[in-house]
Amino acid sequence: MKYAIVFTLFGCYLLLLAVYLGDWAWLLLWPTANALLLAAAYAGLGPALFGKRHDGRRAWWATVVFLPYLTLTLTVWHLMRRFSKADVRNEVAPGLWVGRRPLSRDLPPNVGLVVDLTAELPVARGVALGREYVCLPTLDDTAPAELALNELMARIAACPGAIYIHCAAGHGRSATVAAVVLFARGLANSAQEAASLMRRSRPGVRFRPAQRRLLERLSAARDRSERGVP
Questions:
Q1: Beta partners for 115?
Q2: Diameter of the chain by CA atoms?
Q3: In terms of DSSP H, where are the helices of the chain?
């Protein structure tokens, strides 16, 4: 709820500013609406508010509604791409790549499946061309729903080639899903082990509280299953 509170307070601030200044300041009602919708998304309505479809494109109405926020996030992404010293992507295990939102030229040549965890950014042109593409929109600093994650894991397990998992920066949401893949492959048994393994090649990996709770729950369930405990 932390993000819901932060976005609510920010939206209220913008609203008061628009009322106080008047005139052209009424244009602040647009980003005000964005902030309050983001608060609603984090309060429980979820990433569907962003209107991102399973093909990675965004519904036209969502582009119009969220234009101020989308402009900001794309600007930040381009600045990160230009100035960040972190690698675009890293192979954290054989055939398992974790990275930030890629352009088509950023993908390793042997990738057969791209997993997109972003809710706020559209898929870049050419990324889905000639390979399988799966979009599981997830709010920043949160974890995917378990049912959707289970369906995603089935598709990952069926992929014969390399896998590229990404979010915006390639440190949280994407690393969370990659950790579940490491669990499934028997390469890690806990969130801490998965993080340590991935940080050897991608030092920026870190799990937010919701992501860590999901991984700990899945790790405990896997451990009970292996011991035959219901």
A1: 134, 165
A2: 68
A3: 2-21, 29-40, 60-65, 67-83, 146-158, 173-184, 191-199, 209-226
Query: What are phi and psi for residue 185, nearest 5 degrees?
Result: -85, 0
Neighbour tally for 178: CB within 10 Å: 27
Tens digits of per-residue pLDDT, 9-66?
A: 999 999 999 998 888 888 899 999 999 999 999 999 999 999 999 999 999 999 999 9
Q: For residue range 160-216, list pLDDT tens digits in order.
A: 899 999 999 999 999 999 999 999 999 999 999 999 999 999 999 999 999 999 999
Q: pTM here? A: 0.92
- Torsion sign, CA atoms 15, 16, 18, 22: positive
| Residue that is written with structure tokens 């600045």 in the block | 79
For position 224, what pLDDT does the model report? Answer: 72
Residues in a beta bridge with 164: 97, 114
Q: Which is it for strands 111-118 and 162-166: parallel, antiparallel or unpaired? A: parallel
76-135 tens-digit pLDDT? 999 999 998 889 999 999 999 999 999 999 999 899 999 999 999 999 999 999 899 999
Residue 165 to residues 7, 67, 83, 116, 181, Cα–Cα distance (Å): 28, 26, 22, 6, 10
**What is the identity of the amino acid at 38?**
L
Measured between alpha carbons, how far is 48 from 110 in angstroms, rounded to an integer? 31
